[in-house]
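Hi,

I'm pasting everything inline rather than attaching a file, because the server keeps stripping attachments. The sequence lines come first, and each chain or strand is labelled.
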Amino acid sequence: MEWLSLDLLPPLLRGFKITLLLTLCSIAVALCCAFLAGLARISKYAWLRGVATAYVEVFRGTSLLVQLFWIYFALPMLLDIQFSALAAAVLALGLNYGAYGSEVVRSSILSVPRGQIEATIALNMTVYHRMRRVILPQAWSMMLPGFGNLQIELLKGTSLVYLITLTDLTYQGMMLRSYDLSRTAAIFAWLLILYFIAAYALTLFIRFAERRAAAGRG
Amino acid sequence: MSQNNPKDEHDKPLVSYRKITKSFGDRTVLKELDLDVYPGEKIALIGPSGSGKTTIARLLMTLEKPTSGTIEVEGEMLWLMPRKGKLVPANEKHLHRVRSKIGMVFQHFNLFPHMTIQRNVTEALVHVLKIPKSEADERAMRMLERVGLQEHTNHYPSQLSGGQKQRVAIARALVMQPSVMLFDEVTSALDPELVGEVLDVIKGIASQGEMAMILITHEMDFARDVADRILFTDGGVIVEEGTPEQVFQNPQSPRLQTFLSRFLNGSSDGRTGSRVAAGAEQ
Ligand SMILES: Nc1ncnc2c1ncn2[C@@H]1O[C@H](COP(=O)(O)OP(=O)(O)OP(=O)(O)O)[C@@H](O)[C@H]1O
Ligand SMILES: [Mg+2]
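And the predicted assembly:
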């Protein structure tokens, strides 16, 4: 295992930190987008459904790379707003995976049995109360597996951000490799290990959330 | 039979269906149905499958909207409300107020699986009636005792038997103190040996209640024991109605006679059939 030398680690870990930061922030944004769009898509207001559907279709129908470029390079020229590279990346990742996530939110809510809704009507609950305390808690445990997959997809998606000047884990790997091509295998081995650790941490987190959501229901 | 005489002259109906028609697509399942339910009255709805019994209940619970006709609850229209001297379609607020007088127990319980038994019963007390948590807990406890489930307050629905689940569902509806309660075949999803415990609970409630009850059931014995009045529905209309004696011992219409004979012969359902047979001998 000599070739997997530790001197590669410090620069890689610097990049790893950026990758993690980006992942966590983007997950937060994606979660918000997923809920807003998912709820909007089952709203009784047609215009709201229309807006949400347009958002979802646009962000699912174009590539993440193009969205990154748009937010970072094109918008400043059209609208006179300049995001930092980090903000642009979080926005693009959040909006993109939020679009996929909204589908998870929507389908989970719709798969709560009809009888649950009827029970809330028979108990005279308001629409808000029903959603907040009966439908969403049950839908939440159905969303978690889908969210788990998307989180890991998002983590992998962060490897594109070096194209808008961010020095993430992949970027650091590429740099190290350009200094010394002979260590290519070692560098990629480290990338593999670090990405896997991050992905596994996300998986464990989702499992924990799943266990909590299922508590007591046996 | 119930001692009180709910159809006193001076009593106003609690619920009135007037010329209620309900269609699903081009299929008409209720045809110009009229029905009055008086305060405290116990009504049993019997009739063949598909005759519209569930639809009658769901219309009152506002789970379905009538195609035409009106339903009044304590003098207020269910789906319409007065505004500037005219009747306009009811808004959520109006429905919310009228609905507070109605409760329902479902065939498949529909308990909230993510809440304990206690919370299933207190949820609407606290968040709909805005009763303080401590008082709601007390009321829930009393109600759970009444249905014999005080030991299970901290369990989740999945940990209970079907009969216990249904008793929780009854407690959950009862604790809201509706003026009229709908029971839609509340024992037909249960294993035969669990039916009795649920029917006993309902009989208990019926014997002490000022609450009106509409019981949809295939348990003829139970209907005869509990109901003041029995309605026989077929093909979306009420074909015949009367006291349990009239309906069971002296059915007039051929359709009711055929329907009852199926139970008496025990050809379709031996269990229920034998119960009716035993009752008819008295
Ligand atoms: N949402 C619906 N869409 C279409 N048809 C429906 C719907 N609900 C009920 N029906 C039809 O209406 C008719 C009456 O149904 P309903 O459930 O009221 O009968 P029921 O007397 O309760 O029967 P059962 O004893 O089987 O419960 C049935 O033919 C049923 O198929
Ligand atoms: Mg039915």
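The first helix of chain B runs from residue 53 to 60.

If the labels don't parse on your end, tell me and I'll reformat.
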